Amino acid sequence: MKLALWLALVAVAAAAFPRGAAAQNFTLPSLPYETDAFEPSIDNMTMTFHWTRHTNAFITNLNGQVLTKCPDLNGKSVLELVLAVGAKCSWNERRGWSARNSDCFTIPTECETLVRNNAGGLWNHGLFFLHNLAPAGSQKYADDASEELQTAIWEAFGDYDGLKANFSAAAAGVFGSGWAWVVVNDDGKLAIVTTPNQDNPLFANAPVKGLPILGIDVWEHAYYLKYYNVRASYISAFFDVINWKGVSDLYALAKEGAGSYATADVLKPAANWED
Ligand code: MN3
């Protein structure tokens, strides 16, 4: 190749990736399971479209609109973006998100809604698909939830049935589109919260904050192909495909505090997928 062409390519690359701003283009992770492994609880087509179309749209928007309008957000992880929604600069430090105090930042006004919807959406779906779901019949609460998690559920909800009843009622009660969550709250206890749209209990401006360990997507795209308008049937079926090992790992990290919890990467499959 001619020297002039090389120099031109180097110049183009330097302009695309300015010094100090690592290119942070999000990519859709590979799922660690077959999408038909959730039948009959969640149908193959829903699993496929929900991941490759709906989840991928958040990535397209983050890589495109967000980084175009707000290039200073280049290099931020999805967790950093989520934590920054509604945040004053000091918020992460106050909550004990120790690793990133020096990087504390606020989202530019022109990107607030885009980050709220798309970073929230990507984080939520990463948790759901890669840490909260396991193929039908592959795990049982009694065998696969840790003793510590089972004890916490017993303390908060009485027993597994109490958890299921409370969580299901919350998920059924979300008006329109949103999520229901089991979180570890500031007192270290389990609680159930709901959020609208793609909001998240980690947002600095969340009305009820907590560290999510289990979430259910109750947008219609998550269930309509199989369950039509009967959200309650989908919620019930969700309990047959929960990755209790993944949820237990998140619980252990959340109990250690926000700094430990921050080491969990929702865009990488939960540790039990390496077994
Ligand atoms: Mn969804």
TrEMBL record:
Entry's InterPro entries?
Mn/Fe_SOD, Mn/Fe_SOD_BS, Mn/Fe_SOD_C, Mn/Fe_SOD_N, Mn/Fe_SOD_N_sf, SOD_C_sf
| PANTHER family assigned to the protein according to its UniProt record, in alphabetical order | 37S RIBOSOMAL PROTEIN S26, MITOCHONDRIAL, SMALL RIBOSOMAL SUBUNIT PROTEIN MS42
Q: Which residues form the Manganese/iron superoxide dismutase C-terminal domain?
A: 146-248
Q: Which residues form the Manganese/iron superoxide dismutase N-terminal domain?
A: 26-129
Q: Does the keyword Signal apply?
A: yes
Species for this entry: Chlorella ohadii
Q: What is the name of this protein?
A: superoxide dismutase
Any single GO CC term annotated in Swiss-Prot or TrEMBL for this entry: cytoplasm
List the signal peptide residues: 1-23
Give the EC number(s) under which this enzyme is classified.
1.15.1.1
UniProt xrefs under Pfam families: Sod_Fe_C, Sod_Fe_N
The answer to whether the entry has keyword Oxidoreductase is yes
Supply the alphabetized keyword list: Metal-binding, Oxidoreductase, Signal
